[in-house]
């Protein structure tokens, strides 16, 4: 495994670890049932949607890293790590008022999902330069 690919995997791991405590908290009590209106189920569905988006992002990040010339990989790695930290901070700030409410985990994970989906498009731009 190349050093840059190894660092890329490190960024993917950082993403997973950054959101693990909130993800585990939201998953503790319920399974996702899209037909349910219960907060716990809606929270679980939001967590599941985020996990799917985050997994897709991590896979795409590694694909982009492999396609980039060696000289651009360090820039993408720094950009991705900064984006991960910023995403978490922005979503925590955006949902701070609801974090103790039943819908708090859902709102937080919906924010993470939206930001993650936007990032997928940003990764594509790295290949166009």
Short characterization:
With 129 residues, this protein is an all-alpha fold. The protein contains 4 helices and no strands. It has a domain at 45-129: Up-down Bundle (Substrate Binding Domain Of Dnak, Chain:A, Domain 2), CATH 1.20.1270.
Q: What is the third-level CATH name, the topology of one domain?
A: Substrate Binding Domain Of Dnak, Chain:A, Domain 2
Provide the helix percentage. over 70%
Instruction: Quickly give the CATH architecture of one domain.
Output: Up-down Bundle
In the predicted model, the low-confidence regions spanning at least 5 consecutive residues are 20-27
Order of helices and strands: HHHH
Distance between the termini: 25 Å
Largest sheet: none
Regarding CATH, which class of one domain? Mainly Alpha
Tell me, briefly, the overall form: elongated
User: Hey, roughly how much beta strand do the residues contain?
Assistant: under 5%
**How many beta-strand segments?**
0
Keywords: Signal
InterPro entries: LprI-like_N (IPR009739)
Organism: Delftia tsuruhatensis
Protein name: Lysozyme inhibitor LprI family protein
SSE layout and pairing:
Layout: H1 3-27, H2 39-67, H3 70-94, H4 104-126
Helix pairs in contact: 1-2, 1-3, 2-4, 3-4
Pfam family, one: LprI
Organism: Delftia tsuruhatensis
Domain Lysozyme inhibitor LprI-like N-terminal: 32-123
